[in-house]
Amino acid sequence: MTGRFDAIAQWVAGRRHRVLVAAVLLLGAAEFMAVRLYPASLPLWMPYEFSWGVFLATSFAALWYLRGFASCPDSRKPRRWRIAAYFAGLFLIYAAMQTHIDYAAQHMFFIHRLQHLVLHHSGPFLIALGDPGGVLVRGMPRRLKRLLDATWIRGAMAMVQQPAVATLLFVGLIYLWPAPPVHFYAMLDPRLYTLMNWSVTIDGILFWALILDPRPAPVARLGYGPRALLCLAIMPPQILLGAAVAFSTRDHFQVYAICGRIMQMTGLQDQQLAGLILWIPPSMMSVVGAIIVLNFLRLNDERVEATAMSGSMIRA
Amino acid sequence: MPRILRNSHGWRLAAIIFSSLALSGCDRPDPWRLVEMEDRLPPLAFDMTSVQDGRTVTAETFRGKIVVLEFGYTFCPDICPTTLATLSRVLRDLGGRAGDVRILFVTVDPDRDAAKDLKRYVESFAPQVVGLRGTPNQLASLARRYRVAYSVTPAPDPADIEVMHTPTLFIFDRDGRIRLLSPRIDDPGSIEHDLRRLLDEPRHGGTET
């Protein structure tokens, strides 16, 4: 398994970057045309609405990772489970936006909530768990690397990953998009719809990367304890919103009736199910996140102890 | 932060300005009664066959007319005929002005709705109703454009074939821009009111798609 992954990474790293870009663009163009011209004949794994943004972002996230992985010295190569987590997260995000799951999400409120569970929670969570930053930077073109090092980008990152801001953003987006007047137009207007999906995905990656950083502070932005607390802090607002939606006796989301539901379900049933999805799985993710952070804390303590005994350098 | 916003008077002032702006918005003498869309969906565009004359028609064909877009099928037991009957009544009430309105009835079941059946069906309602039939791909791309769900579940017995589609009406102005949605079909008064308002508007001449 690792052997095959190594071989693929070596093969990708052996191509010139320009060739990879051309191949991705060509594949994207083919998919774009197919989706545009043959919407009725597409298999379900093809996009319902093709997005260049999602296609390019996920393609390069995969390619740069493979290139970076190939150039890592053996001692610094990520563990197998981290690689698996990273690609699983990437795959989930791609599948949620660029297959016919998106059609279902546009037409059933609870499937929309499942889609956002992937985009805001589990997809970014897995990517962050994969801790791909170092490998990605190794694999991306030098010019982009320099751009990411720019002070304004670092400043912006520091600001949105400031714990209070990160929590507010994370919970704020969960409250903003389902707010009935906003939700109505977000589900109809393709531009708002795109903005909604991108905003939760990017925010999810930033938030979970802040939480699931394996390194201790100050190399990581926050210490392990505050990060575990942050996981728990985002729980109550989500439980509250989920419960409010699940227990509401009025259908607040008319947009699904307007576009047409694709399952035999009343608006209220759809909404109750969506409420449960807002309520339960995110809370479980928070608990899992907190447990993982506490485990990082334990592992780090053990490492510090071990190195203190052997007197060698601490490796981040 | 500007100084005026730092004290509570500033906030109060801001609140007053904001609420008066909001109120002036509601204050318009004649508000729309259907759901306002104002360009929140793309302009009308499609490529289909008109069952009346068998020719290929596009959104361009209907520039200059107010267009009401409806999805349905001729075997539809209740929703489609009710909607079309409601719309026919609205057209009758519009009198001479109805000539500037077109109802585009797009079949979501082109396999069973042969052109001649669909023609007979739409003509039984009003002369302004145009029956449109497309290939599965033409139909799917129009439905996707307006985020419309539809499906035909085949069955050996034709009586068991299940067709699903949304009853929503999509209303476009003379320039093909989306202006209104009508989620309910039992409110001819609102539809007529808003169509009159749209008919009063001059054409801007924008033909971008």
TrEMBL record, chain A:
This is Cytochrome c oxidase assembly protein. InterPro entries: Caa3_assmbl_CtaG-rel (IPR019108). It is a multi-pass membrane protein. Pfam families: Caa3_CtaG. Keywords: Cell membrane, Membrane, Transmembrane, Transmembrane helix. The keyword Amino-acid biosynthesis does not apply. It is found in: Cell membrane. The chain crosses the membrane at residues 20-38, 50-69, 81-97, 117-137, 158-177, 192-212, 224-247, 273-297.
Automatic annotation (TrEMBL), chain B:
Residues 35-204 form the Thioredoxin domain. Signal peptide: none annotated. It comes from the Bacteria. This is SCO family protein. It comes from Sphingomonas quercus.
